[in-house]
Amino acid sequence: MKKNSYLLSCLAIAVSSACHAEVLTYPDPLGSSQSDFGGTGLLQMPNARIAPEGEFSVNYRDNDQYRFYSTSVALFPWLEGTIRYTDVRTRKYSQWEDFSGDQSYKDKSFDFKLRLWEEGYWLPQVAFGKRDIAGTGLFDGEYLVASKQAGPFDFTLGMAWGYAGNAGNITNPFCRVSDKYCHRAESHDAGD
């Protein structure tokens, strides 16, 4: 009996020494996701993350109101650009029904995100972005955002003006640069 328990103990030690415990680690940094508008972000909210330099993505998003087609590229570690084409299903192409037919409103635009500083041990990554440059102005807006990774979590906090900050309760600091940032167009119908 002692011999069997001795052999069983030796076998258990041999098997357990072959097993390795693995430390739970998280990728550093976590991979970035693409937002509904294209470019890195969370659903319709941008974050301060920039895709790895040279990363090219093609995106398609579809919901009840919009159909988004976008292409994003991280040109530098600190700059990301997006070209977007949007089919707005809730609006006709023109204010004149006979002219529009079944055609819905379309918006073409360009966005960029510029990293202001990189994430450190204590400080978050901070970025500034502009949406709908040279478009119809339907999604026109600016934002300032900070993101900080803590273990497997990536926290984001930011402020936005224009479409992204559509509550309109914070005065846009760019009003000092140009009045167009203070008074956005209310209507984006063709022919107005």
UniProtKB/TrEMBL annotation:
Keywords: Signal. Pfam families: YjbH (PF06082). InterPro entries: YbjH. Residues 1-21 form the signal peptide. This is YjbH domain-containing protein. It comes from the Bacteria. It comes from Escherichia coli.
